[in-house]
Amino acid sequence: MPDRDQLLAKARQALQWDALLEALAGRTVSSLGAERCRSLPLAGTIEEARSLLRETAEMAAMESSGEGFPLSNFPDLRPVVERAAKGAPLQTVDCRDLSVVLGLVGDVVRYLHRRKDEAPALSAIAADMDDLPQLKRAIDRCVDQEGNIRESATPELRDLLHQANAYKQKIRAKLDAILGSSRFADLLQEQYFAQRENRYVVPVKAERKSEVPGIVHDVSASGATVFIEPRELVDLNNQIKEADLAVEREVRRILQDLTGQAAGHADALREDLGLLGTFDCLRAKASLAHLLGASDPAVNANGHIRLMQARHPLLVLSRLQTQEHIVANDIELSESVRVLIISGPNTGGKTVTLKIVGLFALMARAGLQLPCAPGSDMAFFPEVYADIGDAQDLTKDLSSFSAHMTDMIALLREAKPGSLVLLDEPVTSTDPAEGAALAEALLVRLAERRFTVVATTHYNSLKALTQVRSGFANASVEFNIATLSPTYRLILGMPGGSSAIDIAGRLGMDGDILDEAVRLVDRKERAVEQLMESLQEMRRTLDEDARRIAALLAEAESSARMQKALADQQAETEKETRKTARKKITEELLKARVEVQAVLDELKTDRKLVKAREARERLAAIEGAMQSQLAQAGDYRPVSELKTGDRVEVTNLGAAGVLLENPAGKKRVKVRMGEKEVSVSVSVLVGLAEGGDAETPKQKKVGAVREPSLRIQEASTVVDVRGRTVEEAREALVACLDQALMDGIPVVRIIHGHGTGRLRQVLRDYLKESPYVAAFRPGERFEGGDGITVVNLK
């Protein structure tokens, strides 16, 4: 009789757990990671399961972030570490591989250190990693990326290599002399030299070998050439041999030293390799989750299963190439349900549903995300048992029935309460009446023992248990009566008929046999079967109607959203149109001002006050006309409609404020702009419509040539030209005087500072020539002294 471990192993085999682990191992980049995946441990507690799932979720988030986890293929160096620990010298390629692994460890540690807040669970794993920087530096100093000893590994090695190369250059010079000498011209087979047993030789014709004194090292395959080390090369070859041996001794000493350093860190290297394998396995979990379209489930300890749009993981993997549609199902067992009985036709998907529940239970314990919709819940089961398929064992003289009964007896004896038990058509292969009775008694006992049971059946008496026993629930796989074919949809809360006669007919059974079978079936059982078929068809129709209604509702909501989006878009378009119109009008206003400025520039040579006033009046008239057009752009209100408290825009400053007095019949009014009250000309005002998006005083006016540099303070205008060039300061002063003249401001203050005095002098020279200026003076001491100039306008 099987023990607990055998029953659990048999369940994993029935659920094809090893096949899923093999698919997981296929997503790794190292043999260590694949090994870890194939022996994936199962959590013994719900806390451990949640911790494993949290690690997988963090890795999945890292992988999807774009940068990805810094892990590439790395060798399994456990045998290398063990050899080093025992004192056996490492090879150069072993040292190179150790450097590669330590580099990966460093990359992982630094990567997770930067993301310790995003991935605390992964960071906790990496906390035990040590990238051993001193060992890596020692290896990299001595061994290059190709696995060769560097010439610069030690000063001694460098000197020995230089000496060996010097000998080799000397012997090659001598060989060149031999090859070019007349003495050897007729003796050599060809004009080249070679090496045999690491000694330099020349190819001599076999029939003339006696004419070349020296040592024979080799003969060609044809026998026509004898490779001889001439006597005059023996001493040099000996020197080269001794130098090469000295180099080999130094290389062995270097490798022995590196081996000793690696042996001193053997425990840390073992830990690093194990953790790299763990991270490789975790990355494979994240990769498999992405491939399956899986999500992170909530794991509970109260036996509640709520899987939305669940799909069998192996079925998903098998259909990746063909892109065949897989029917996803909702599976739910509330805390009060101990036994779920799934009925319905053969080939309808009952066993697949059974395996989904079992595999999901194992996957949750292994930290694997589940191929179901987000928001799903999976109960934690400390043990999973499954009796699926034919248990016949001829070697033990057990029939199918006996083998199943043996497993059930062992299960009742060994299984812990709270375990998940999966039974595929329990107690068959015997008398149907006795089998149904025994199956009912078995399910009742399992429920009493606090197991969660999912069972498939064709027994009508088991389907009826939900009416007489609490804790039992029905489900069925759908069968389409119209097409006489399964749809693979799971219907919760409703039993299903087996439809054996219908399926036999669909498979081609003779019609007379089918008619006879219908006649022989018990009328009551046939009536029950037909009733279940009718109910299932009604349920299918209702579900289709519900889906159509949901689709229509979604379409209506989509249309409403689209209509609102179009209305918003139209409003935005109108708003942009008005802004464009205002921008265009403002640009025209600025062009008009430029024209008037040109007139004013002409007046610089004609300092007649009458001319200046005519120009000023012309500018005011043009601005008034342009402001009128601007008010018609849509967002603005004309001055005639304004009253105290309305929001207005001062167009020449590109700033908004609140009107403090009624503009009717006035040339100037007070406006509050932020914390200040200023007096402005009515001609530069426009009213803002309700909800208008006027710019703040700090914003630049759309279409303006430059941001205003003037700050209005009470009844005066101030221009600050400190830090500007002479030309920039003069330009700012001209603009300030134009603005003041247009606004009727009598006094302007120019802040130019002391400095060298050149800027002050240039500006005052200009003021002497300006037709606008009545007088100017240096500021009083309390005003800033000679660092400012106060200008009185005409």
Walk me through this protein's architecture.
- The structure is a single chain.
- By secondary structure, the chain is an alpha+beta fold.
- Helices cover 49% and strands 16% of the residues.
- The protein contains 23 helices and 25 strands.
- The protein has a 6-stranded mixed β-sheet, with helices on both faces.
- Helix 4 (46-64) packs across helix 11.
What would the principal axes of the Cα set say about the shape?
Answer: flat
- Counted by DSSP, the helix tally is 23
Helix content: 40-55%
Biggest β-sheet strands, sense, barrel: 6 strands, mixed
What's this model, at a glance?
Helix content is 49%, strand content 16%.
Features:
single chain; 794 residues; six-stranded mixed beta sheet; 23 helices; 25 strands; 49% helix; 16% strand; flat
Secondary-structure topology with pairs:
Elements: H1 4-14, H2 17-25, H3 31-38, H4 46-64, H5 78-85, H6 92-114, H7 120-126, H8 133-142, H9 155-180, E1 194-196, E2 199-205, E3 214-219, E4 225-230, H10 234-264, H11 266-292, E5 298-300, E6 305-310, H12 313-318, E7 329-333, E8 339-343, H13 350-366, E9 377-379, E10 384-387, H14 400-414, E11 420-424, H15 432-448, E12 452-456, H16 460-463, H17 465-468, E13 472-480, E14 485-492, H18 500-506, H19 511-520, H20 523-602, H21 609-631, E15 636-637, E16 647-650, E17 655-659, E18 668-673, E19 676-681, E20 685-688, E21 711-713, E22 716-720, H22 726-743, E23 747-751, H23 758-769, E24 773-778, E25 788-793
Parallel strand pairs: 5-9, 8-12, 8-13, 10-11, 11-12, 22-23
Antiparallel strand pairs: 1-2, 2-4, 3-4, 6-7, 13-14, 15-20, 16-17, 16-20, 17-18, 18-19, 21-22, 23-25, 24-25
